[in-house]
Amino acid sequence: MPVTAAIAEVTARIAERSRETRAAYLARIDDARQSDPGRAKLSCANWAHAFAASPVGDRVRAMDPNAPNLAIVSAYNDMLSAHQPLERYPDLIRAAARAAGATAQFAGGVPAMCDGVTQGRPGMELSLFSREVIAMATAVALTHDAFDGALMLGVCDKIVPGLAIGALAFGHLPAIFVPAGPMTSGLPNKQKAKVRALYAEGKVGRDELLAAEQASYHGPGTCTFYGTANSNQMLMEMMGLHLPGSAFIHPNTPLRDALVGAAARRCAAIGPRSNDWIPVGHVYDEKAVVNGVVGLMATGGSTNHCLHLVAMAAAAGIHLALEDLDAISKVVPLMARVYPNGSADVNQFHAAGGMAFVVRELLAAGLAHDDVLTVAGRGLGHYAKEPFLDGETLTWRDGATESGDTDILRPVSDPFEPDGGIRLLDGALGRAVMKISAVAADQQQITAPAAVFDSQDALMEAFKSGGLDRDVIAVVRFQGPKANGMPELHNLSPPLSVLQDRGYRVALVTDGRMSGASGKVASAIHVTPEAADGGALAYVRDGDVIRLDPHAGVLEIQADLKGREPAPAPSAGSGYGRELFAPFRALVGAADRGASVF
């Protein structure tokens, strides 16, 4: 089915805006393919270095220039639950590659830090910039130029976007993203959120809080709430960069292992020398970008992708703007309620029909492009299928045609909300984004006096002292990429939620981030220009009345800022590695352009 006029219009606008940069990018891909592929271009000394440590069988096979050689780029570490399962993947991939007449080499590792570990800690100020480090580390891994394709092993917040940006720099190679899958369900999300709120009020102690957190995050795999990590996996399906149905299969299961092996075989089959060349730079085009945005809105995904989608698109020569996200959000209904937009976790979402159901519905409604190239072949319809094992054989069958639980997943014809819930705000305070899908309708529009803070710690102190027990819009500034790397401020959710539960009208305005874990408090985030870059937030004072209205798309202040002196920016933090990232803070672009240094 052709897409609706609204989706077609946004796609055409992106394509026209990107015409010159996209053409230059595609020309670069074509030039790269013209040189001898893979290791065939290496001199004898180059070749000997590249395969010196390989097993004898792989070295013999590598003598054949027509045998594909696959790069493995991995974010494995055993500290983070989402990435610990990746430890086993290289052996699975090498075995599958050999069976397909190919070789596979671990080309390089990339860092993977967890925002759940660094929340409220100095290390969070490195988090967003780790995306750029991951992209560069991916480029270092692939720059040996001995490969015919790449398997990208990563899951969480900045890791998948960083891997994507790095892979797109080698856009002539096929790249298949290989996830780990979610951990099994633990403590229900509603119960976890309640304990967090009680702790913020001082009604339970650290022992009770730790017990609740450990019951929630309890095993290998991705955290089960619908934050940025699981939004990444949704995007890889919607943009055709996973094998179909890969996103939410548990780690360390026969089906997951079969999908890992299948990814290696598929990557070997679609390389530059094959008759079915599917390079990542062709998969990732304007229509794929639009499909990704559509998926984000339909499932209520992470606001972090208002940064990452823009930065990833730019790596492929595509100019995606916040206006495009806003326009798509207005025409794509919210089909899923997964925590924090509901009480269910991603395992329950998957059981209710998951991504196969979402893709089928979006295609049938003309809200997603079907005529796209994916790693599975031509057509997004491949992703309306789900994998299963027939004995020991991996195959795919049609996904669910009806939701298994309409409290979690609904068809386009009967959505939870008529739109996707992410709004672009504009006004005297700058441009911002806001996610309203988890915010009650009567809490979305707020006009109240400001309480201004230059750090999240200062807000926490005011909350604990009772200084915020009133209708208030908390302004937390100097949290943008130039100021301190744009940390997530998720630690502010519990105290602000408590204030709202006490009956006060509460909102947050910040040039920082709140992530996919942001919840029920109205939050205007990613304010651009940021306070440290001359933005209006630097001029706001306590008591200034601010109006936040996502339906009108406004972020206004009822005060004249002219003639005021800006608040001095706090000194950038040092220690915990932060001083090493000073060049990134100096070079980084604005949040509405992806907060990228590239």
Automatic annotation (TrEMBL):
SUPFAM superfamilies: IlvD/EDD N-terminal domain-like (SSF143975), LeuD/IlvD-like (SSF52016). Its cofactor is [4Fe-4S] cluster. Pathway: Carbohydrate metabolism; Entner-Doudoroff pathway. The keyword Iron-sulfur applies. Pfam families: ILV_EDD_C, ILVD_EDD_N. It is an enzyme of class 4 (lyase). [4Fe-4S] cluster binds at C156, C223. Binds 1 [4Fe-4S] cluster. NCBIfam families: edd. Belongs to the IlvD/Edd family. This is Phosphogluconate dehydratase. It comes from Caulobacter ginsengisoli. The lineage of its organism: Bacteria, Pseudomonadati, Pseudomonadota, Alphaproteobacteria, Caulobacterales.
